[in-house]
Design brief:
By secondary structure, the protein is α+β, with helices and mostly antiparallel strands. Among the domains are: 144-273, Sandwich (Immunoglobulin-like); 278-411, Immunoglobulin-like. Helix content is 18%, strand content 32%. It has six helices and 17 strands. The protein has helices spanning 2-34, 67-72, 112-122, 125-132, 136-140, 389-399, and strands at residues 62-63, 145-153, 158-167, 181-188, 194-196, 207-215, 226-233, 241-249, 260-265, 279-287, 292-301, 314-322, 325-331, 341-350, 359-367, 375-383, 405-410. The N and C termini lie far apart (101 Å). One of its GO terms (molecular function) is SNARE binding. Residues 142-263, 276-409 form the C2 domain. Residues 94-106 have a biased composition (Polar residues).
C-alpha cells in the first residue's frame, strides 16, 4: 500500500512542477515580446527603392520622417532620418545626444511670410525666370503653391527633399468641392528615384511634411539634376486627376550652406506635342503556305520628348486587326532614355482568313512611365486601306509573299 501512495505523491509533485515551469516560460516570452523594439521605422515602401541604411548594403537608399517619433523624442531633429540604425543602442533606442541643425529653429514651423523672406535669398536667376515666364492663361487658372525644402547631407552623401505643404489647390471633386491631394516626385533626367507622399483627404491646403532622403548622389551631380513634382488628386473609382506640376532645375541652387526653403506656383501639366512624331522601321513577311504574318520591329528614330526630362522610354505595341476587330496584340521591351531606339524584336501572327484583304496591323509607340499612364508618342497603321507609305508597304508584301520587306514610316499623332 505504501508504494502506490509514494508514486501518487511524486506524480502530484511532478505535475505541479510542470505546470509552474510552463507558466513561467509563458510569462517570460510575453514580457520579452512586449519590450522588443523594431530595428527601424518607415513611412513609405516603393518599388525599386531600398529602405535599409548604408551599413547593411551599398544600394541606393530612401527614408522618410515619422512625425510621432519627433514629438515623443525632442532630442532628435524633426527632419532627421529614422532609418539610421547606427545611432541606436542594443535595445533599439536612440541615445540622448544634442542634435545640431544647420538652420535656425524657426524653420521647423515656417509661416508663409517666412517663406517669402527666405525666398529672396534662395531663388536663383534661372528659377526666377521660370516664375516670370508663366503665361496669362496659367495666371488666370490658379492651381496653388507648393512649399518644400532642399538640403544636402555631406556626412552621408545624401540629398534630402522635404515636401511641406501646398496652398490654394483647386477642387477636383465637384460634389464636395474639395480634393484628395498627394504628390509624386521624380529626380530627372534618369528617373531612377520616384517617390510619393500619402493621400490627404478632403483638403485644398494639404500639410504633408514628409522628408525623402536619397543616398548615393554625389554633391557634384546635384547641379545636373531637376526635380519634378506632380500634384494629383486621388480618385477611388477612376484614374487620379492631375492638378498640375512643378519643375525645379537645381542648376545654380547652392546647398552647401544648409537647408533651403522654397515655394513655387503649380502650373498646368505640359501635354503639348511637337509636330514631328518620329519614324519607325518595320519589316513584314506574309507566308501564304502557313497563312502567317511575320512582323519585325527594328528601330525608331527622332522620337519627340514626352516628358519634362527631354528623353523618352519608348516601346512599341503591335495590334493585329481582322475586319476592324483586334484579334491579337504584342509589345516590345522598353528602351530607356533614348529618342533613337533599337528593338530588333520579331512577332508571328496567325491569320484567320485566306489572304490579307481584311487584315490590318497597328503600331503604337508609347513612352513608359511608372508614375502615370503611358503616353502615346506616335501611331502607324499598315493595311489595304492605309494611306501613304503604309498602304504601299502593305501592297508590296501582298504581291511578294515569303519575302521580308522593310521600310521606314513617319509616325502620326496618337
Amino acid at each position: 500500500d505504501e508504494i502506490p501512495t509514494v508514486v501518487g505523491i511524486f506524480s502530484a509533485f511532478g505535475l505541479v512542477f510542470s505546470v509552474s515551469l510552463f507558466a513561467w516560460i509563458c510569462c517570460q516570452r510575453k514580457s520579452s515580446k512586449s519590450n522588443k523594439t523594431p530595428p527601424y521605422k518607415f513611412v513609405h515602401v516603393l518599388k525599386g527603392v531600398d529602405i535599409y541604411p548604408e551599413n547593411l548594403n551599398s544600394k541606393k537608399k530612401f527614408g522618410a520622417d515619422d512625425k510621432n517619433e519627433a514629438k515623443n523624442k525632442a532630442v532628435m531633429p524633426k527632419n532627421s532620418l529614422h532609418l539610421d540604425l547606427e545611432k541606436r543602442d542594443l535595445n533599439g533606442n536612440f541615445p540622448k545626444t544634442t542634435a545640431k541643425m544647420q538652420s535656425s529653429p524657426d524653420l521647423e514651423n515656417p509661416s508663409p511670410k517666412h517663406f517669402a523672406e527666405r525666398k529672396k535669398d534662395s531663388v536663383s536667376p534661372d528659377s526666377l525666370k521660370s516664375i516670370t515666364s508663366l503665361s496669362s492663361e496659367d495666371k488666370q487658372d490658379k492651381l496653388g503653391t507648393l512649399f518644400f525644402s532642399l538640403e544636402y547631407n555631406f556626412e552621408k552623401k545624401a540629398f534630402v527633399v522635404n515636401i511641406k505643404e501646398a496652398h490654394g489647390l483647386p477642387a477636383m471633386d465637384e460634389q464636395s468641392m474639395t480634393s484628395d491631394p498627394y504628390i509624386k516626385m521624380t529626380i530627372l533626367p534618369e528617373k531612377k528615384h520616384k517617390v510619393k507622399t500619402r493621400v490627404l483627404r478632403k483638403t485644398l491646403n494639404p500639410a504633408f511634411d514628409e522628408t525623402f532622403t536619397f543616398y548615393g548622389i554625389p554633391y557634384s551631380q546635384i547641379q545636373d539634376l531637376t526635380l519634378h513634382f506632380m500634384v494629383l488628386s486621388f480618385d477611388r473609382f477612376s484614374r487620379d486627376d492631375v492638378i498640375g506640376e512643378v519643375l525645379i532645375p537645381l542648376a545654380g541652387i547652392e546647398l552647401s550652406e544648409g537647408r533651403l526653403l522654397m515655394d513655387r506656383e503649380i502650373i498646368k501639366r505640359n501635354v503639348r506635342k511637337s509636330s514631328g512624331r518620329g519614324e519607325l522601321l518595320v519589316s513584314l513577311c506574309y507566308q501564304s503556305t502557313t497563312n502567317t504574318l511575320t512582323v519585325v520591329v527594328l528601330k525608331a528614330r527622332h522620337l519627340p520628348k514626352s516628358d519634362v526630362s527631354g528623353l523618352s522610354d519608348p516601346y512599341v505595341k503591335v495590334n493585329l486587326y481582322h475586319a476592324k476587330k483586334r484579334i491579337s496584340k504584342k509589345k516590345t521591351h522598353v528602351k530607356k532614355c533614348t529618342p533613337n531606339a533599337v528593338f530588333n524584336e520579331l512577332f508571328v501572327f496567325d491569320i484567320p482568313c485566306e489572304g490579307l484583304d481584311d487584315i490590318s496591323i497597328e503600331f503604337l509607340v508609347l513612352d513608359s512611365d511608372r508614375g502615370s499612364r503611358n503616353e502615346v508618342i506616335g501611331r502607324l497603321t499598315l493595311g489595304s486601306s492605309a494611306e501613304g507609305t503604309g498602304g504601299e508597304h502593305w501592297k508590296e508584301i501582298c504581291e511578294y509573299p515569303r519575302r521580308q520587306i522593310a521600310k521606314w514610316h513617319m509616325l502620326c499623332d496618337g
